[in-house]
Specification:
Distance between the termini: 71 Å
Shape: globular
Number of domains: 3
CATH architecture of the largest domain: 4-Layer Sandwich
Helix content: 10-25%
CATH superfamily of the largest domain: Metallo-dependent phosphatases
CATH topology of the largest domain: Purple Acid Phosphatase, chain A, domain 2
Structural class: mainly beta
Number of strands: 46
Number of helices: 6
């Protein structure tokens, strides 16, 4: 591998060292653009300057230079993602990572750009008349292709010393910029639905000028920790808006490590409020991030007016248990996690609340409690996985799903989310996007940690009730809560110690045995009765063999799962087999069934989909519409009803009812 690294250094002629020194490229040419298929001279002169830190501000380093080298693909027919590890997972960006990068630290991305043409400079255009630009291929009829692809690799030591990145880009019509495979958090005129394929036309609007210029800031630079043996890659996909477009243009004007503080956006003093279910329907658990290192408070009062001055005199005040240091944003913005529990809430009431303290408060939000004497409703969804597509498009899809679900069902008690809230467990800008929809501040969530969430970041963001010491990971552990006549048990199945999960469920049922629950529900992330790609995972039969006998033993009625990004509903299952002796009433409800119903939800944001696999005997219904989905669940004393929706048309794609009658 050392030989390959030396080759990269030779091609780029540029190595950047942080912490002790910066070695940059000093050009020997006055050419400010790019020349097609030109091999650069090896840079033998090194510009060295010491990094200094002055009141928390590091020296700024400009990566863009007239001698920077690019590899690019402009044949208009080749998808660079073909043959990569990600192609099999319906992810488009396997081509955007550094050469040799390992997914999950083990799986080679199986990509190289050795056969791509090379250019030097900063400008690419389909118009030969653009001076100093590398000329991109057009079709025979003179029109531009749907997508052009570019890669620039550089070396960077001590990436932890980079606190922010700013840049300026010019383009026509739309671009996605990747840093080590992860999209930069800017929309850059791409369609809000993103692209389903790499070779695809599309833009928010047609660019009528030669180009648009846009400035951006990369607030979360943790992608720099994902380089490969010191190498880092800037990748760009450039899209035309529609077939028949005559031109396409890309220019990277600037990409600056550690930009001056005065160009960075304002930082929220209080953000990312997580409203979680409480131990029962009379309580709520809160968590939030704040810049203050002192424990904050939540103020809550009866009311509905969120625009008026907050009624402090009438509010109950609950202090955060502590302020836990979480992460530093930019140079010196240190965030702290706060958690508090509000108890004694009355059913059927409207409350307003805010969190913070010391003059820094969140906006005021309204949250309603529900009178559940007649039952309660739940929105079930999974796998928002913000950041798998791009953060702006995933955030839009996530918000759209929540808005449509709660516009249709405003009296829902809470959200049941079976995990993968973000794509990269340690990327806080993905959590910022997850918590952006205001609906999350008005409806509590019962959260099951997903495999993409396993990091202390998850623990900092969520405050779950009745946490057990069993099933623990860096993110959380198994926990339970009760809601009226339903017992909910939530497992952290990314912890594969199945015996601990089994112990937790048995102990929970025993601890709550004084209540005669009408329904028992288990939630976890990794589906054990899936219909898509994850149904082939080696860990599926292991979980299934461990859990199913215990679900049968404990009388679990319903299991809610995700992970597969496809929708699936089983038959009533017992002892690993569909229950055959069933009966239905005149409304089509299944009557007094034995066994357990298993539901697997698809993507809540549209960030990623898997294709369906073979038909399985355990499935009563499966679907992959390649649009976001959610389900509405309703519990009464004797009836469970489920309706599943696709968000593009809001059609019901599946429905199911269980009715328990006196025997």
């Amino acid at each position: 591998m050392k030989k390959n690294i030396n080759k990269v250094i030779l091609l780029l002629g540029c190595t950047i060292f942080l912490a002790s020194s910066i070695v940059g490229c000093k050009s020997k040419s006055n050419n400010t653009g790019a020349t097609k298929q030109v091999q650069p001279e090896t840079n033998t002169e090194a510009l060295v300057s010491e990094i200094t830190e002055n009141e928390g501000e590091f020296s700024s380093i400009e990566l863009v230079s007239e001698s920077m080298e690019w590899k690019y693909l402009d044949d208009l027919v080749s998808d660079p993602n073909s043959g990569t590890w990600y192609e099999g997972w319906n992810k488009r960006n396997g081509w955007a990572y550094p050469i040799g990068w390992l997914d999950w630290g083990t799986q080679d991305m199986l990509f190289d750009d050795v056969d791509w043409p090379t250019a030097v400079g900063t400008v690419f255009s389909t118009e030969p008349s653009d001076a100093n630009a590398a000329t991109l291929t057009k079709r025979k009829d003179g029109t531009a292709g749907p997508t052009y692809f570019f890669r620039h690799t550089f070396e960077l030591e001590s990436p932890e010393d980079v606190k922010a990145i700013s840049g300026t880009v010019r383009y026509n019509d739309a671009v996605i910029i990747y840093l080590n495979g992860k999209p930069v958090e800017s929309l850059f005129n791409i369609p809000i639905s993103n692209y389903s394929e790499n070779l695809q036309y599309g833009a928010t609007q047609k660019v009528t000028e030669p180009y648009v210029e846009e400035n951006f800031v990369i607030e979360d630079v943790s992608s720099l920790m994902d380089g490969w043996e010191g190498r880092h890659t800037i990748a760009v996909e450039l899209h035309c808006s529609e077939e028949g477009d005559g031109d396409s243009y890309f220019e990277l004007v600037s990409l600056s490590l550690n930009p001056p503080k005065d160009i960075l956006p304002e930082t929220q003093a209080v953000k990312n409020i997580a409203v979680s279910v409480g131990a029962d329907e009379t309580s709520l658990n809160f968590a939030w991030f704040a810049l203050s290192d002192q424990p904050g408070v939540i103020q809550i009062a009866k009311g509905t007016d969120t625009a008026a001055a907050f009624p402090q005199a009438d509010a109950d005040v609950v202090s955060s248990s502590q302020a836990v240091e979480t992460y530093t944003k930019f140079y010196d913005k240190q965030y702290y996690s706060n958690k508090a529990v509000v108890e004694g809430l009355e059913p059927g009431e409207s409350y307003i609340y805010r969190v913070g303290g010391q003059e820094n408060w969140s906006p005021t939000y309204q949250i309603n409690t529900v009178d559940i004497n007649g039952g309660h409703e739940v929105i079930f969804l999974s796998d928002a996985q913000i950041g798998t597509g791009t953060i702006p498009t995933d955030r839009f899809g996530w918000k759209d799903t929540l808005d449509k679900a709660f516009n249709l069902y405003p009296n829902v008690s809470f959200i049941a989310n079976t995990g993968d809230f973000v794509d990269v467990a340690t990327k806080e800008n993905e959590y910022d996007a997850y918590f952006a929809p205001e609906k999350l501040m008005s409806y509590p969530t019962a959260s099951a940690v997903g495999n993409h969430d396993i990091a202390v970041n998850y623990k900092n963001h969520f405050n779950e009730p009745n946490a057990s010491a069993l099933g623990a990971s860096d993110a959380n552990s198994d926990y339970y809560f009760t809601y009226g006549n339903v017992l909910y048990m939530v497992l952290n199945t990314s912890n594969i110690n199945h015996s601990e999960h089994i112990q937790f469920m048995r102990e929970t049922v025993d601890a709550t045995s004084n209540t005669d629950f009408d329904w028992k529900v288990v939630m976890f992330h990794q589906s054990i009765y899936a219909s898509g790609k994850q149904s082939k995972s080696q860990d599926v039969p292991l979980r299934r063999e461990a859990f199913v006998p215990v679900f049968d033993e404990l009388g679990v009625d319903i299991v809610l799962m995700g992970h597969d990004h496809c929708y699936a509903r089983t038959w009533q299952m017992k002892n690993f087999e569909p229950v055959e002796d069933v009966s239905y009433d005149s409304d089509g409800a299944i009557l007094n069934p034995e066994g357990t119903l298993y539901l697997t939800m698809a993507s809540a944001s549209g960030s990623k989909y898997y294709d369906l696999e073979q038909e399985y005997d355990y499935l009563a219904f499966r679907a992959q519409f390649y649009v976001p989905t959610f389900s509405h669940l309703s519990f009464t004393k004797d009836t469970f009803t489920m309706n599943a929706y696709r968000t593009d048309t809001m059609e019901i794609i599946d429905n199911y009812t269980i009715r328990k009658t006196a025997q």
